[in-house]
Amino acid sequence: MTEHAVVLVSGGMDSATAAAEAASRDYDLHFLHTSYGQETAGKEYECARDLADHYDARFFHAETDHLARIGGSSLVGDGTVEDADSAGGGENDDTTEDGDAVPSTYVPFRNANLLSMAVSYAEANDCSAVFIGAHTGDFQGYPDCRPAFFDAFQTVVDEGTAQETTISIEAPFASGSKTAIVERGLELDVPFEKTWSCYRSEEPACGTCDACVYRLRAFEEAAATDPIEYAE
Questions:
Q1: Domains of the chain listed by start with CATH number
Q2: pLDDT tens, residue by residue, 84-102
Q3: Alpha carbon 192 to its chain's center
Q4: pTM, to two decimals
C-alpha cells in the first residue's frame, strides 16, 4: 500500500529537495505551503505551485499571518533584510544556549508553527510522515533547525496524536550543509529553476541577502550553475 507524506514546501531549494527525497522513498506527496507576511510571498507561492505540478503532488495553502503580526524578524512586518555580510552576528543579536548568534531573519518559533499545521494535515489525511528541508549547515543560530529540535518535536507528535496514529518527522538535511542539499538535489533531478530563495525581490533575485549568497555559494561549491536570474 502506498504511504503518504506531507512536505512543507516554501518554494525554496531546500524544501524542493526534501520533496524529491520523499518522492525517492515512494511516498505519495501532499504539499503544504504557507505565507506568513514575507516580502517574496507571491513568488514563493508561484514556485510552490510549479513544484506541486512537477511532482504531481496535492497542494494545500495556509495563511499564517499571525507570525507577521507577532513580528520579531526582519523577514516580516517593517523589518529590513540586511546584506549577507552584516546579517546576524551583531552586538545586539540574541544568541542560542550554545552561544551562536541568532540571525535577524529568524522568525520566532516558525518551524514549530509550520510542523504543527503539517502534523494536523497528516493526521487528518492519513499521512505517515512529514518532511521538512531545514538544515543548520550555514546558520547554526536558527534554534528551530537543529536535529535536537526535530527529535523533541517527534516526541510531541507521538504524545499529542491519537493512539493509532503514527507520523514520522523527517528532516533529512538537518545535520547537513546547503552544498550537500544542492548535490543531493542534482542527484534527484530537482528542478532548481522552479525554486526561489531571495528574501528581498520577486525577480530577479537580489544576489546579496544571506539567502542568495548562501545559495550561490552552495552551487559554486557543488560545481554547478544556479539556474535562476540574479541582479548582482
A1: 4-221 (3.40.50.620)
A2: 654 443 333 444 445 457 7
A3: 14
A4: 0.89
